[in-house]
Amino acid sequence: MKPRDLSDHVAYQAGRGIEEVARELGRDPSTFVKLASNENAHGPSPAAVDAIEDAAGSVSSYPKAAHADLTAAVADRWAVADDQIWLANGGDGAIDYLSRATLEPGDDVLVPAPGFAYYGMSARFHHGDVTEYALAREDDFSQDAETVLEAYDGERIVYLTSPHNPSGSTIDLEAVAEIADRTDEETLVVVDEAYGEFADVDSAVALISGRDGFDARDDVAVLRTFSKAYGLAGLRLGYAIVPHAWAEAYARVNTPFAASELACRAGLAAIEDDKHVERTVATVAEARATMREEIDALVWPSDGNFVLVDVGEATPVAEAMQERGVIVRDCTSFGLPACIRITCGTPSETDRAVETLNEVLEDRGLDADGGTTGVNGA
């Protein structure tokens, strides 16, 4: 007995953790800084930590009430109906729900390249296939309707990422609306806004709810998460916001009690903790500016809680930084072997990352274009 043929499936490669790297190098974990997984530099919302402690004694019960309460709170935040919120085990869980609700065997999805591997993984799990549209480095990974539509060929789901991971570029609502207008009636446009709190752009939820001069649509869905701005990555809590016509499908595709009691209680507390989000967003803006100004290599503008840096050869640079105690993301797995991604840390973490990277680049004697190291050309 063997599993089905998984040869077309690409395994997701997560950023490396401090404990893993410290064990490998035989070093004290406290000497490392991890800036590889776009986690919150300030940790979880303090209100969420209190809520987890308070809820610890109730984990013997299924989270029916907490699930309903969090659904209502998220719906209120976005001014949509409760049944338009599909809570999930992280944003990837919400992607799976949309795949289950949408894909028939053999259906294709259209995804950005480079981009989040799980879009394609979920499609293949559900016996679909994957096509790609390219976000070009030479165009600074810019996103517009024509880039997507030129590659479109009737796919059942079109994924947009705003802000895009790993570049940090965004796509405006008019372009999303144009893509939805010009794709087939049975195509769902999914806008992944996992990093939306860090971007100065309007959410595509306006296209679902019919606000800001747009008519309400039944062919757009939005993905959001508590992992980034709210600092709850370890609890795995995300959600999809879907058209009203889709609401009934959730009960038929979701995993029973997909969001745990602790996750729901933490989410309820975190969604009200505006001060923590504001502090996080301010720290990210400061870190992005610092890295753009002070790194001696090309740093692309970003609306996420990370920046993409052209270092010429990603793997040796990432390994050298890791040896010096700063863990960053080698973007070779994204198809960008010249680039690393650095998460926005606290001011001291960001300064250490900048100093370490500049030292590594100087030691290698190369800038991001293979020439002599100089000032940032971004």
Automatic annotation (TrEMBL):
GO terms for molecular function: histidinol-phosphate transaminase activity; pyridoxal phosphate binding. Pfam families: Aminotran_1_2. It comes from the Archaea. This is Histidinol-phosphate aminotransferase. Belongs to the class-II pyridoxal-phosphate-dependent aminotransferase family. Histidinol-phosphate aminotransferase subfamily. Transmembrane segments: none annotated. Keywords: Amino-acid biosynthesis, Aminotransferase, Histidine biosynthesis, Pyridoxal phosphate, Transferase. The lineage of its organism: Archaea, Methanobacteriati, Methanobacteriota, Stenosarchaea group, Halobacteria. Its cofactor is pyridoxal 5'-phosphate. Gene3D superfamilies: Aspartate Aminotransferase, domain 1 (3.90.1150.10), Type I PLP-dependent aspartate aminotransferase-like (Major domain) (3.40.640.10). Residues 32-357 form the Aminotransferase class I/classII large domain. One of its GO terms (biological process) is L-histidine biosynthetic process. It is an enzyme of class 2 (transferase). InterPro entries: Aminotrans_II_pyridoxalP_BS (IPR001917), Aminotransferase_I/II_large (IPR004839), HisP_aminotrans (IPR005861), HistidinolP_aminotransfase (IPR050106), PyrdxlP-dep_Trfase (IPR015424), PyrdxlP-dep_Trfase_major (IPR015421), PyrdxlP-dep_Trfase_small (IPR015422). Its EC number is 2.6.1.9. It catalyses: L-histidinol phosphate + 2-oxoglutarate = 3-(imidazol-4-yl)-2-oxopropyl phosphate + L-glutamate. Pathway: Amino-acid biosynthesis; L-histidine biosynthesis; L-histidine from 5-phospho-alpha-D-ribose 1-diphosphate: step 7/9. The modification N6-(pyridoxal phosphate)lysine is found at residue 228. It comes from Natronosalvus rutilus. HAMAP family: HisC_aminotrans_2. NCBIfam families: hisC.
